[in-house]
Amino acid sequence: MLTVSLQHALPGFGLDVQFEAPPGVTVLFGRSGTGKTTVIQAVAGLLRPDQGRVTLNGEVLFDTSQRHWLPPHKRRMGYVFQEGRLFPHLTVRQNLLFGQWFAPRSAKRESLDRVVELLGIGSLLQRRPGRLSGGEKQRVAIGRALLSAPRMILADEPLSALDEARKAEILPYFERLRDEIGIPMLYVSHSAAEVARLATTVVVLQDGKVQRQGSAAEVLGDPAVLPAGVRAAGALLEARVARHHPDGLTELEAGGVPLFLPQIAKAPGSQVRVRISAHEVILSRQRPEGLSALNILPGTVENVRTGSGPGAMVSLRTPAGRVLARVTRRSAQALGLEPGANCFAVVKTVSIAPEDIGSGG
Amino acid sequence: MLSLRVSLWATLAALPLAVFVAYALARWRFPGKQIVNSLVHLPLILPPVVTGYLLLMVFGTKGPVGGALQQIGIVFAFRWTGAALAAAIMAFPLMVRAIRLSVEAVDPKLEQAAATLGASRVLCFATVTLPMILPGLIAGTVLGFAKAMGEFGATITFVSSIPGQTQTLPSAIYTFLQVPGGEAAALRLTLVSIAIALSALLFSELLARRAAERAGGC
Q1: CATH number attached to the domain at A234-359
Q2: Which of A316, B158, B169, B212 is a Cys-bridge partner for A299, taking CB atoms 3.0 to 4.6 Å apart?
Q3: Which DSSP category does B73 fall into?
Q4: ipTM value for the complex
Q5: Which residues of A306-328 are buried (b: 16+ CB within 10 A; e: fewer)?
Q6: What is the CATH code of the structural domain delimited by B2-215?
Q7: Start and end of every Mop domain (chain A) (predicted)?
């Protein structure tokens, strides 16, 4: 358990956050420039905040009121930077083993073989970082952090310097860190898709303050929390893989409701989490018939939020969980969408993109 | 040969301090940094004779430091060690400049990364910074060595030109030129000095290239 309490003056605004990160993956979620990186750097010891106190499993990492400051090399935090920061004068293998020289003998450590296998970097070991692609560098950086026998992994937007294809390549490795290694993680991100796939707990930062904290499904399903903008809104459903169909579809089961999506590489019975983008959901008051969309979720309107624009965000309670739908204000009025109204959410199978599906946890 | 010994000692003795000062000037912020910087560069700007005279005042047997050192048996004035001291002080700024540039070229973010992996400051310097500045370090050392070999003004002021004791290559050439018929000897020494300079340069190029290859790859 990591507890964080920080005050720090940043250009233009003051950072003032308190939160707790229980075991699992805690994602610090917010737009750029809300102080996320400052928080994670203070936890790592790379930045001295004006005031604050951070503890990890009861041990005080720093406490400005007692002038206590543990230097970064004694904190044993595995830091994965945005840009890799591999050592150019060492081979991949030497980079990976770098932290092992310094880790205390007693520390529980991962074996090189296991990490290399987990990250799929066996063929890179003799190479120099300069000859690696962006995705490869990032995988090596994850391995290097993991092999330093850290008590926790800190990841500062580790995917933001990568293109979409590379992001999709790296994200599963963080899931494996969470599910197979089980190491606690503090992960900074401004992407709702990353939150949906990784987070056990989400801490939403806005203008230097904690706006909301909760489980991924709770926070992403809350229409009031839209740090990544209305376009990125979308709720998270927990589901179980029911079966794979021969026509290339995978059937999930979420709260007794079937969900069809393009085939995914997960065994039947495994838990997955699916993010449904709010702008991909169509609402209908009657059960639609003669429609090409395969996924129809019955539900009840919880609330309808409107802003100054033409759009409305409808929050719907369904047996599968909460679903958000982005519709126009005009349709919301025409359909009579008010709290308590029954309606159906329609989701096209192909609108569920692979990057929106993560393993459950 | 005396000249080689003087220059070698001068460079070797000055090197650790030069690395430390260069690192401090490149990385740390401390009060009086500008003053330290100016002091380091002073021998480069002052006329060498002035430096030599200052050395004589401070390190001479009647000087405050020289007198104290004499008590424990270390004498600089009019000894080859004095020639080495003068050469080291003259070579120091050049070494610091070259090494500082290469330290500044190392991304501090890499040092941060090393710290998060558990490396203390000293270990971080030894495992990350030092290997990465190696080419600059070699270049600085050779530059310093060359300067030490060529040092004339401060040396002759501080320790004079005593054959077999403090007579370095440049001061020997100068002495030969002062006597009639000495041109042949002077020319011989000139050729020796060219040979030493060229081989030092080639050697450093070789080392720097190998270091760059090891550090490189990107």
Answers
A1: 2.40.50.100
A2: A316
A3: T
A4: 0.78
A5: eeeeebbbbbbebebbbbbbbbe
A6: 1.10.3720.10
A7: 290-356
